[in-house]
Design goal:
- 65% of the residues lie in helices and 4% in strands.
- Strand 3 and strand 4 form a beta hairpin.
- By secondary structure, it is mainly alpha-helical.
- The protein has a two-stranded antiparallel sheet.
- The chain is built from nine helices and four strands.
- The longest helix has 43 residues.
């Protein structure tokens, strides 16, 4: 019987607290991840706006979710999913990254158009100015086509390595699908990509909170899972450049 409504038959068991509940007590009815309203109360009072995009509209759902991730990350990532699969969250993450790149593109386009116009007016080689302007215009379709692909690859990469780190630390509490969902929504700060000194760190902060709330681990563990593989890749890249330079120096003929 339902633990809250004792006169009703239970239709699910909460996967967090183990309580039996009826249809009126369920918050998330995703098969295998049913959550009761009592456990869901630790997060938002209703499902994420992005998971209600068909009801409230895609554009409104995107901006509301972005605002929640950037202003109330803990409550946002404590909110259980009401949507099956990861296509929805990954789509959100790809959209966030693409829109962020679009804002950067506008700035770059204006810069190239300004340079091209100035060179066409002030120099004797107006063709060079036209080349600059044309290059800026050509970047629009190329960037908009590449950005979603890069975003999906980045989400899969980040989610996979972060989840692997937590598994190796024996701190993983949920499956890879839920990690991927968390990392996807953590891409929301990419909308500030034009502020290159802010956006990357905000994404890392959001991803840290996302992993902490999703896997119910400490902030330190979540931060390590978020940053460790990034630092490792940075060291590998620096090491590869250093090795290449060393080989070039060693191969150069010695002066006589």
């Amino acid at each position: 019987m339902c633990a809250v409504h004792g006169d009703r038959d239970a239709t699910f068991t909460c996967t967090r607290c183990g309580t039996y509940g009826c249809d009126d007590c369920v918050f998330a009815a995703v098969v295998g991840r049913e959550i009761c309203r009592s456990c869901a109360a630790q997060g938002l009072s209703e499902p994420l706006p992005w998971e209600q995009r068909k009801q409230i509209g895609w554009w409104r759902a995107y901006w509301r979710t972005t605002k929640l991730v950037m202003t109330s990350p803990s409550a946002t990532f404590r909110t259980p999913t009401t949507e099956e699969g990861v296509m929805g969250p990954v789509l959100f993450g790809a959209a966030a990254y693409t829109l962020g790149q679009a804002t950067v593109l506008v700035l770059v386009l204006l810069m190239f158009l300004g340079m091209g116009t100035a060179m066409a007016v002030t120099t004797e080689e107006p063709a060079i100015g036209a080349v600059f302007a044309g290059y800026g215009l050509c970047m629009i379709p190329i960037t908009l086509l590449q950005a979603p692909v890069y975003a999906v690859i980045g989400i899969l990469f980040s989610g996979g390595l972060s989840h692997l780190t937590l598994v190796m630390l024996k701190k993983s509490r949920v499956g890879f699908e839920q990690t991927l969902r968390a990392v996807s929504y953590a891409n929301a700060p990419h909308i500030l990509a034009i502020l290159s000194c802010v956006a990357p760190f905000w994404v890392i902060a959001a991803e840290t909170v996302a992993l902490r709330e999703t896997h119910r681990c400490t902030t330190g563990t979540a931060l390590f899972a978020t940053v460790a593989w990034r630092l490792l890749f940075l060291l590998l890249i620096v090491g590869a450049y250093a090795a290449f330079i060393a080989l070039v120096v060693m191969a150069a003929p010695s002066p006589r």
